[in-house]
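Protein Record: Sequence and Backbone Structure Tokens
======================================================
Tokens: labelled as protein backbone structure tokens, with as many entries as the chain has residues.
Question of interest: how does this chain fold, as expressed in backbone structure tokens?

___
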Amino acid sequence: MIFASSYSPILYLGPVPVYDHTVAQWLVMIVLGVTAFLATRNMQAVPRGLQNAWEAIVQLCYDFFGGVLDEHAAKKWTPILATFFLFILTSNYIGLFPGSATIHGFVPPTADWNTNACLALIVFFTVQISGFVAHGSHYLGHFISPHPAFLPLAIIEELVRPLSLTLRLFGNIFGHEMIVSFLVLMAPFLVPMPLVALGVLTGLIQALVFTILATSYVAAATGEGH
């Protein structure tokens, strides 16, 4: 699933190379965008079908991730946290489709560190923005609390967070894809199946871990402690 071909352009848009992971990201965004549009284009007071499913997903995300935040912060920041979860979960699962290893664009975007680094940078800026929105300029005080001597450590802590998020997600998804890929070469049908099934659980856990950590960072930035 993750071989040299994944790192060679599959097409060019003018001078811009397009890789498998980029196509997979487009596919994930289209799937999420289209299903969300279809679920909300004709909202009903008594939800049914796709609207009911999406409302259930939104409510679960609000209860699970928003429960870590206070009510005001939950309403403001749960949408982006839920987006992280749904994008990562769908990205992790896209490589589990039968035959996906032989189809360009069907590689998990999260198996590429560039995707994860972008997600982690969005988390970094979301945390800083949420802190300023909640506390204004007083948010800067947490960098020198309880003493100005802690400023370098506070800055390092903020910078290490996106790196940690990137490597954790990349390592788990890329590692799973590599193992399954080699097993597919050795035993195309039987041996990889348990690992593919395990990938369903791994994909969910990694999406949860990334989003829970992002939520905890936002909670720390918006909490009364600042």
